[in-house]
Amino acid sequence: MQIFRYADNRPMPWKNGQGTTTEIAVSPAGAGLDDFDWRLSIARMESDAPFSAFPGIVRTLAIVDGAGLTLAVAGDTPVTLDQAAAPYRFAADQPAEARLLDGPVSNLNIMTRRASCTHLMRRVRFQGELEVSTAGTLLVLCHSGGIEIGGTSLAPLDCALIEETKKAALHSSAASSVFLIDIFSD
After folding, report:
1. What is the pLDDT of residues 25-68, one digit of tens each?
2. Model pTM greater than 0.90?
3. Helix or strand or coil: residue 51?
4. Under 8 Å between Cβ of 125 and 174
């Protein structure tokens, strides 16, 4: 298991310069914006803006802070996303634009390259114990509250990476929310 502390990362400009993003984890390690197989990040939006285009990439987005946004992706009906909404999956190579609902937002993004892998993101709220497992790669991101996994505490926005048929138990003494992101190689 590998741990990624949100506080250890620094924001960088979006590919199109319209916002900032903080990379949490990427594969292969050290990959850039044009050569990753998968990339997990948290983007900060201060105003309405178009999203950067990523050819050959599928993206799933979920709101982690702020009131939310309305996302219009070419060819799809616009969707409104907030912290209660399910993660939204879309083609990152299609033009997309977000309009903020009521002030700045932060959103969690998992992006995978169609030619090498796919992903599934889900938000889970729990208290007590939650068993998780994967046959591929599993990213566990603490959204709210605090969790313990494998004897390690995760604060909000910290992330654990579990690989290859591993099982783990998440523990939380208070109501917590996590994002579970499965990544499968094609």
Report:
1. 999 999 988 899 999 999 999 999 999 899 999 999 999 999 99
2. yes
3. coil
4. no
Q: Quickly list DSSP for 65-128.
A: ESS-EEEEETTS--EEE-TTSPPEEEETTS-EEEEESSS-EEEEEEEEETTTEEEEEEEEEEEE
Q: Report the amino acid identity of residue 30.
A: G
Radius of gyration of the chain (CA): 16
At residue 7, the 3 state secondary structure works out as helix
Please state, as a whole number, how many other Cβ atoms lie within 10 Å of the Cβ of residue 111.
20
* Distance of alpha carbon 72 from alpha carbon 79, whole angstroms: 7
Q: Among residues 167, 160, 117, 164, which one has the least CA distance to residue 136?
A: 164
- Decide: residue 173, CB within 10 A, 0-12 exposed, 13-18 middle, 19+ buried: exposed
Render pLDDT for 132-149 as a digit per residue (tens, 0 to 9): 988 889 999 999 999 999
Q: Are strands 117-133 and 152-154 parallel, antiparallel or unpaired?
A: unpaired
* Residues ≥6 apart with Cβ < 8 Å to 123: 62, 86, 87, 143, 177, 178, 179
